[in-house]
Amino acid sequence: MASKMHRNNYFFLNLGFISAGFLFYLCWTQSYTTIRATSSAARKTRPLSNLSKLDLGSEGDVTTPAEGGVPVPAEGGVPAPAEGGVPAPAEGDVPAPEGIIIGPARDGRVGLSCHQPVTTDGRFYKEVDFAKDDEDWEKKSCSPVLTLPDPDEFYNYVETPRLQCEIPVMVGGKRRSTVIDGNKWVCMSKKFKVQPDKCVVMSFGISTDWSFDDEMDKKYGCKVYSFDHTIHKQDHERSKNLKFYSLGLSGTTRTNKMGIVTIDRYINTLKKLNLENSTIDYLKIDIEGSELSFFGDVLYQTPNLMKNVKMMGIEIHMTKKDHRQRFWEFFQRLECLGFKVIFTEMNRVKSNWFHQGKKLRSMCYEVVWARDRQW
């Protein structure tokens, strides 16, 4: 009898455990269903309707910047360079450093997310100090240029957007191994009014990658002017909306042995195309270090030309010690003229990377500035 009672007690004990487990499963299933429904509803309310007359495809076609994108060194990453040295040579594309957010981009590609803005004012000045449209920008002076006290100050500026974009779109780029190279971020929010068939793009620096230029032409109907004096091509029309010119960009004018202008100032290029009074929706510059000369010329000699620029995407190169100080002065001048960083990426070529303390830095960044106003 005792043995039979023992077996019955064991049976009911097991039945209790099974019942408790079944109840836990039901509760977990209900919670999971609720979370999925909430997430799905949140995704459906993303502000993609703000873009009028521009077909960006489905919701998944747009990559929204993710927070926390500041690069940090991966364990066992690139060794820090010696004083005045350069990072260890390790050419080629590599996966994003630990801490950089990777997410789905347009056309199913993988894109590098951008950092979120942290303030409504600029890094150096308050909104009230920014240049106004009715001012003569050649006479505009902000507070004295700040010297660069610490390298961290420089990289904090480069890696921290100050302007929010509701509809960021990655344009162009080619897949190289596991990464996309040559892409540019463009803000398609209503604020910047990038209108199909009316937008104007100037693209300096092509090499072999036409993806950005072609897409701004074919998908968005922009009038695109492309420039590169290093690829040995004659001036030609690549399409109805895309014209190529064998011409470089700098802060001075240079000619070859036959007296033909091969590199010119921004103002001269605009005059050549009758665009000095036209709105430039996107100014793309990737000219391997000559951006310093461009900045020095346009920001101080012809700053009024910048009144007509909505967005400016530039690959900045810091291959010498004094480059940071020179860029630092230009960054402040840009902000004085109302331009704020809206997108930023660290260049993905590993040979440009180095450690600064515990932080992974690069000698090359893709930075997009936008003029903070309603267009």
Structure, briefly:
24% of the residues lie in helices and 22% in strands. It has six helices and 19 strands.
Give a structural overview.
The chain is an alpha/beta fold. It has 6 helices and 19 strands. The protein has an 8-stranded mixed β-sheet with strand order 9-10-8-7-14-15-19-16, sandwiched between helices. A hairpin with a 5-residue loop joins β12 and β13. InterPro entries: Methyltranfer_dom, METTL24, SAM-dependent_MTases_sf. It comes from Petrolisthes cinctipes (Flat porcelain crab). Pfam families: Methyltransf_22. Residues 52-84 are annotated as: Disordered.
Radius of gyration: 26 Å
What fraction of the residues are assigned to beta strands by DSSP? 15-25%
Mean pLDDT: 75
Percentage of residues assigned to helices: 10-25%
Instruction: Tell me the structural class.
Output: alpha/beta
The CA-CA distance between the termini, in Å, is: 91 Å
The largest sheet, given as strand count, sense and whether it forms a barrel, is: 8 strands, mixed
Q: Identify the strand order in the major beta sheet.
A: 9-10-8-7-14-15-19-16
Number of helices in the DSSP assignment: 6
Low-confidence stretches: 26-118
Question: Shape, please?
Answer: globular
Beta strand count:
19
Order of helices and strands: HEEHEEEEEHEEEEEEHEHEHEEEE
Protein name: Methyltransferase domain-containing protein
Organism: Petrolisthes cinctipes (Flat porcelain crab)
